Amino acid sequence: xxxxxxxQPSSAPPAAGxxxxxxxxxxxxxxELAVDxxxxxxxxxxxxxxxxxxxxxxxxxxxxxxxxAQADQLRVFARADLCL
Length: 84
Hints:
Strand order of the largest sheet: 1-2
Structural class: mainly alpha
Shape: globular
Oligomer: single chain
Low-confidence stretches: 1-16
């Protein structure tokens, strides 16, 4: 459940494929990328990372101001937590 741009804590950890898990990973391990971004915006980065792994657009994350190294890390998180 989204509350004012933050995921509300739940008693169970989010399941794979849940954007909340991806958002948590980015906030925890890439704070420089998460700063000033709402959870929904970070989840959108995950969606774009999944699309880039499917070959739809390899450079789509740069439009969000994400460096190549950051894009690689986002793809790692997305592969583990978001892309099905």
